[in-house]
Design a protein that fits this description.
Oligomer: homodimer
CATH architecture of the largest domain in chain A: Alpha-Beta Complex
Distance between the termini of chain A: 30 Å
Order of helices and strands of chain A: HHEEEHEHEEEHHHHEHEHHHEHEEE
Number of domains of chain A: 2
Strand content of chain A: 15-25%
Low-confidence stretches of chain A: 1-11
């Protein structure tokens, strides 16, 4: 840290940072009566239903500060919440941002973080209306989002019925692959990271995308259950099954593995399918649909968003997940995935 | 940590803890369509306005783990947010709780924290509808609250006008006094801490109370500006003045100093008035009222809540805070108080 940066940091008080926040998030926004800077924000509400969600990102647990810039971190903190809203079939409206600043974060770090938050808010038509600012031993970014949904049109995890088809948007495993590649040592790994495939995997990890329009479309297309794949396909499908009181058969050969993983599989030393099944943070949507509506939903996603929808299995009576292997054999599917407490 | 506690912790996964959360916060709650356990909660909204606020409590910054139990910490995380809602003249409705668990927190720690959160939610008719759970290097408790307010009836910090009277509920300085006493060393300090006055001060620090009914009453009584005293009277009155584009004269002899501070002043070695002016976390309401309405507001608070309302100064043209001393002399009032970034 250069001396003048040091001075800058020492001069940064909470009120000054809040003033910066107010500037970054200023401007008229529909539905906001009172934004950042008071005890609370005031927003207009309509007769109907709102969705509420919150996610916390902790340095060293959810991310490695050497692998993600404060700008990408700010954007990601918004995206993971928007993804939860999308998984309900709802639209994000208002956000609250609470940040603990690590000891070495100067004003520039905060401005970068806020810039990323602002860009993601703009992208998803979300308005930042308030929050809190503190110091801390490591960076913690905690976001809460309020969204809107047409009354009764939200999609939970608990509506999957036997016979429903299991579908997933996009491809899986890229985020976990990018992280694994960034953590791998050696010159081959470094070259792979700099290749087009490697950059694409890393992009998936540091700049994930939330599927808001896709979520609304799946809801309209009759999704009986939906969630976003944040902890890994196997663990998250297990959650839909547990919430719905059903089981599922998953055809592993049909799981849409991120194609870039194939290119770097030797350097990773991990089966790309394992990353697709167990890697978290893809933020794709996992849904169940009546069999008769899968084709319609896939066509709508393709046409409106250029988004692939893949049928990967079927909901069954009973409980538990079964993997149907490429050779037709069944095996129990272990619900391996990302548990945010397992790393303690 | 005993071996069986160690085992208990090792066996605690995110899903198990979420199941605990669901049990603790189960039951039917008005307006909640979908509570904890899905990607987001779904709540009913009315045509009108909502208030949104968030606060983050970081171990070592906002609290010392040797001085507050997980149960009190959980309750306090709710109260500080409810206090922000109260300061708008609004009523709390729904809460989201995000927690980073420190390495040595076992399942019992989490259950205690949740118990405190639950008790505070019950006390303020607030429903916990979701959140997030993570590990972390220290405990972080991040809460967001949504509240309701009659359209256009919220009170901001920016409406104070010259001639308005400055009023404050309750007494000030007790929370800071309790903290100072707990941190003081020596047998005299320990005795003082165990005295009735000491226990009362410590209670103010670990179990603060939010003034929800009082906030609504002050709003109805014509409060032109309002906020809660979280960072200290001087700094917070400075914020009202800055937001309103006015100055203020504060009669220091009229500031309602917590009486218990007088009893332990020698042990503390601090002027009780300084604690009342600069100590944070009292969560009393600081408001400005037209002079003609002060008596009515004070009578209403006393009658309905047994809550004292004290007139402590006047809003002036210009800017800056002036302290009017007991001897009638003026001095500039330094906006000393609690800056959550100053400790870095």
């Amino acid at each position: 840290m250069k001396p003048n940066e040091r001075d800058q940091r020492a001069a940064t008080t909470e009120d000054e940072l809040l003033a910066t926040l107010r500037r970054v998030f200023s401007g008229d926004h529909p539905g906001v009566r009172l934004g950042i800077g008071d005890d609370a924000a005031v927003v207009d509400t309509r007769e109907g239903q709102a969705v509420l969600t919150a996610d916390i990102l902790v340095e060293g647990v959810h991310y490695d500060r050497t692998l993600i810039s404060p700008r990408d971190l700010g954007a990601k903190a918004i995206v993971v919440n928007v993804s939860d809203v999308a998984a309900m079939g709802a639209s994000p409206r208002f956000a609250l941002l609470s940040v603990a600043l690590p000891p070495d974060a100067d004003a520039a770090w905060v401005v970068e973080l806020e810039g990323g938050v602002r860009a993601a808010c703009d992208e998803y038509a979300l308005t930042m209306v308030g929050g809190d600012l503190s110091s801390g031993p490591v960076a913690v970014v905690s976001v809460a989002v309020m969204g809107e949904v047409a009354p009764g049109r939200y999609v939970t995890r608990s509506g999957a019925r036997p016979g429903d088809r299991v579908v997933v948007t996009g491809t899986l495993g890229a985020s976990a692959g990018g992280l694994a590649l960034a953590r791998a040592s050696g010159s081959a790994a470094r070259r792979a990271l700099l290749s087009a495939a490697g950059r694409s995997l890393m992009e998936a990890h540091v700049r994930p995308v939330a599927r808001v329009g896709e979520g609304r479309t799946l809801a309209v297309s009759g999704a009986t259950a939906m969630m976003d794949v944040s902890d890994g396909l196997a663990i998250d499908l297990g959650r839909i099954c547990a919430a719905s009181g059903v089981g599922a058969r998953l055809r592993t050969a049909d799981v849409p593995v991120a194609p870039e993983l194939i290119e770097v599989r030797e350097i990773l030393g991990v089966d790309p399918l394992e990353l697709a099944l167990g890697g978290g943070e893809d933020y794709e949507l996992l849904a169940t649909l009546p069999a008769a509506r899968v084709a319609e939903a896939a066509a709508a996603l393709d046409e409106r968003f250029g988004c692939r929808l893949t049928e990967i299995g079927e909901i069954m009576d009973g409980d538990g997940l079964t993997a149907v292997e490429a050779d037709g054999r069944d095996r129990p599917l272990e619900a391996k995935g990302w548990d945010h407490l397992a790393r303690r």
